[in-house]
Structure formats: structure tokens, C-alpha cells
Description:
Elements: H1 2-11, H2 21-39, H3 44-59, H4 63-87, H5 92-115, H6 120-142, H7 156-168, H8 171-194
Amino acid sequence: xxxVLAEWSQAHGGYDVSRSxxxxxxxxxxxxxxxxMVARGVPADAVTAAGVAAAVVAARSARRxxxxxxxxxxxxxxxxxxxxxxxxxxGARGVVVDRAADRVAxxxxxxxxxxxxxxxxxxxxxGAASVAFEALxxxxxAAGRHDIGAVTVAERPFRVVAVSVGLVTSPVxxxxxxxxxxxxxxxxxxxVDRQP
Length: 196
């Protein structure tokens, strides 16, 4: 398990996993859940595709089923990396496929909010804010900035929770939360970069 934590830390800008019980437990759960998939020969790309499929179905579903499908999509997103690590098939191609799948889901989740009653412009703003936050992080990663390991309020798991809760309670509140979180998260990245 130490290797899994170290690999995740390295892939996330050196983030100190010991600082977050939530991250450690998530990685442990994904590692445990991936084992039967690996034993059955399930490729990581199939898990990634299933996650995107869950997001597509969520965008077309009623509110409560959509909330469950959004969560399922997020779990599958965590599982694909665990499956790849255990199968020894991690690599640059897998990272690109995973990030592309994440951005597709980031656009589809606000579609689910829109279908649940969120105004179109607000849903578009939520999708754009999510994609813009991740684009900022990717640009900073490409520039060699150290903040890619920072955990902000706009991380994908937090946005997934905002969408899921919004689908069950208030789609407008879910979309507003994503927009605000993405703005604050971008600010956090800039602040982290200014620290010595």
C-alpha cells in the first residue's frame, strides 16, 4: 500500500498523502475494489469508458438516478487508475485518456443539472468553470509549477459531491457551488504558487 500512496503522491505534484485521511482511505478503497477487476483481466480503459458511460446516462436521467450515476462515474474514475497500476499498464497514454474522460464528465455533469431544472446559462457556467479550473492546473503542470500538488476546494471529488447533492436538493445551488468552488480553487492555486 505504501507504493500506491507514493505513486499517487508523485503523480499529484508531491502532495503529502499523510496530510489527508480522506485521500489515504480513498486510495485504499480503490486498490481493494480494483483487485477483482484485475483478476478478471478488465483493462483500465474499459473502466474509464464505463465511467464516461455513467456520466452520459446521468446527463439523460431523472434527478435521483442521475445523482447515483454521477457518484458511480467518480468511483470508476478512481478505479481506472488503480486497475492500471495493478496491471502494470500505467503510462502517458493512460493519463491522457483519463484526463480526457474526466473533462467529458465535467461537461456532462452540468447537463444533468440543467435537465434537473438548472437554468441553461448557469449550467453552462458550471461546466465552463470546472473545465477552466482543470485547464489552469494542466497549464501550471506543463509550466513545471509546484502547485499541482495543492488540494483546493475545487478538486474533482468536491465538484462531484456538489453535483450529486445539487441533483437531489437544488440544481441551481449545485451549479452555483461549482462556479464558486472553481473560482476559489483557482485563487488557491495562485496563492500556493506565491508561497516560498
